[in-house]
Amino acid sequence: MRLSCEVNGERYQIDGVWEGESLLYVLRERLGLYGSKNACEQGECGSCSVYLDGVLVCSCLVLAGQAEGRRIVTVEGISGGEGLHPVQEAFVEAGAVQCGFCTPGLIVATHDLLFRNPHPTDAEIREALAGNLCRCTGYEKILDAVRLAAERA
Ligand code: FES
Ligand code: FES
Asked: What pTM, to 2 d.p., does this model score?
């Protein structure tokens, strides 16, 4: 099939797509957008989180065919231009990155949280990021990063 969709503000027409492949596969293997990570491929870890028409989704659970005509924003697109988004800066400054595999998903999820709730409590942060697994940091630095981003929001 030919897949037509918008990714990070650019229109794409991608030929030869199998309807059953995942949106994550399309992003990484067909468009070369490697920010969204492929860890579990079953909706458990959040490392592949992107926006689909403004809604936070696990792109490993979205079929390519479901992305037809839709608007997708990945971690590469959230800053909307040159440089880092404040959420990305906060993760760097707080030292919330070790191997970095979970980081893109956490950044997109944090971006979504702060858009909906600019000043979340710790409990709200934990709830919002409950679907994003990190096997390195112990989460404390990630919480620091979200608090830092919220202070600046
Ligand atoms: S790779 Fe999609 S949730 Fe883990
Ligand atoms: S920094 Fe390695 S999994 Fe989170």
From this structure: 0.96
